[in-house]
Amino acid sequence: MDPRCSQQWESSMEDVSTPLLPLHADGRTDGCACSALGSLLANKYLVIAAGPLASALICAFVDLGQGRAAARNMLGVLAWVFIWWLTDAVPLGVASMAPLFLFPAFGISSSDAVAKAYMDDVISLVLGSFILALAIEHYNIHRRLALNITSLFCGDPVRPPLLLLGICGTTMFISMWIHNTPCTVMMMPVATGILQRFPRGQAASSSAHAHEVRRFSKAVVLGVMYASTIGGMSTLTGTGANIILVGMWSTYFPEQRPITFSSWMSFGFPVALVLFAALWVTLCLMYCSSNTGRALSAYLDRTHLRRELSLLGPMAFAEKMVLAVLGGLIVLWMTRSLTNDIPGWGVLFHGKVGDGTVTIMMTTLLFIIPNGKGGGEKLMDWGKCRKLQWNIILLLGAGFAIAEGFKASGLTDILSEGLGFLRGAPPLVIAPVACVFSAAITEFTSDDAATTLVLPLLAELGKTIGVHPLLLMVPGTVGAQLSYLLPTASPPNVVGFGTGYITIKDMVLTGIPIKVVGVATLAVLLPTLGSVVFGMDQKL
User: Fold this and answer.
1) pLDDT tens-digit profile of 394-438?
2) What is the SS3 assignment for 530?
3) Residues 334, 236, 315, CA angle at the centre, nearest 5°?
4) How far, in Å, CA of 163 to CA of 101, rounded?
5) Can you tell me where the transmembrane regions are (predicted)?
6) Rg value, the chain, Cα
7) At residue 198, what are phi and psi to the nearest 5 degrees?
8) Do residues 180 and 351 touch, judged by C-beta distance below 8 A?
9) How would DSSP label each residue in 178-204?
């Protein structure tokens, strides 16, 4: 008999012998009540119930007018889903699947309609980029790249500002091509691996340069954390917020020119460059001094980095093939749609091929190309994909479903009526305000959830006040990514905060200047560069 079965049988026998009701009232009622309440709180039953309860209250007591029951129900579903998102009552992926049963149950849309929102070209783009990120991580390509660039920028003797530039620049570059969350997960061990050479704890307190080392350690963790978020802003694959913008833009305005990989990068990359410069200057001013280089020289030099690099050995065939697939995919992304005069290779397929199409196609090659080790083993197999971040993929699907629900239920029309008082406000004033509004919300929830919440409102606001919707939707998207103040603001912040090197005070003091620069940059570049890239000077 299996020992586990025997243990389960004995456990069940013990349960049977336990009385279901107390045999004697011995005055322990209060203790039982406290224990029951503690169990409810520990198992999140109260916050789980808060979602359905809020939805029921809205559906019972909110009256939006005659013939607007679907819009009221949509409001109730929003309350349910967002409470679960904000409180982590259930796992993020599970909460993101809630629209699949709530929309049909509340009469908002059919099951087929809501299910289609969870898999489209945009979701394919994210799914393929996640698989590519797993291949990069599996073959230690990110580590090789980081060590090469870091040893290049280390300096001899050590120059802390230059070293910070190398670490943060590497992180930003990687985050441009894969999602910022896996990028942070990959790069943070590289950063902390460098920091592990420094004394910490009691050893650090006895060191003559303890203060300088501690400050520089904070700068490295903050730099990786924020550079990953900034790099993700540059491209569609770098963060879910940009993907949500593309999906909602095509949903609300399907007849308009779509936002492509190349068009977004033409605007997002300059914004990211300005933010990266602000990040580097802020870190150097706040965490580096004239004594930092001398303090680090005792623990870090190029010899250490090159020794680690030599342990990786020469680049293997598999690494070269993964880089070739990545390079080919980047070229295809950038050349699918170029300009009106030079349409790109997408015209060969009559516009039926999207960025997600080529992403899945190139990712499929990873499961076909051999890894060069013999035995028929390929670069990737499905076993290596167990770490796929399905929760983020489902979150994106939920965002698209909510955008469809806003439109199908008529809730967008009601919201636009309520925002009519802004009709006379200057558009160039509203855009920074939209950015600040989104930037404030994103500190209390993920950037993807913040984008999902504000974009439908901003899209309708744009139509109501008579300006191009992208003049508001783009600031809302960028503002949601200015998540620098709290650990809860984004997954990269959670990863960085979890290292133990930084505090919330460090994040706030470092993040505020970068946030201010981000809003100012957007206010300048959107009506100038953005107008050309997105065609915002044209009437809808």
Assistant:
1) 877 887 788 788 778 888 777 666 666 666 667 677 788 888 888
2) helix
3) 70
4) 51
5) 45-62, 122-141, 161-178, 219-247, 267-288, 309-335, 347-369, 390-409, 421-441, 516-536
6) 26
7) -85, 150
8) no
9) S-HHHHHHHHHHHHHHHHTTS--THHH
pTM over 0.85: no
Distance CA 224, CA 301 (A): 20
Q: State the burial class of residue 298 (Cβ atoms within 10 Å of its Cβ: 0-12, 13-18, 19+).
A: middle
List the structure tokens of 62. 């909110």
Tokens of 98: 């809630």
Q: Return d(Cα 32, Cα 535) in angstroms, integer.
A: 66
Sign of CA dihedral 106, 401, 539, 423: positive
Q: Find the distance separating the first CA and the last CA of the chain, reported in whole Å.
A: 73
CA distances from 105 to 1, 68, 100, 396 (A): 47, 16, 9, 21
State the Cα angle at 453 between 386 and 117, rounded to 5°.
50
Domain boundaries, the chain: 50-111, 122-199+207-378+410-534
How many residues would you count in the chain? 540
Give tens-digit pLDDT for 16-48: 434 433 444 444 555 555 665 566 555 678 889
Give the per-residue SS3 of 4-70.
Answer: HHHHHHHHHHHHHHCCCCCCCCCCCHHHHHHHHHHHHHHCCHHHHHHHHHHHHHHHHHCCCCCCCHH
Tell me 356's DSSP state. H
pLDDT above 80 for 289: yes
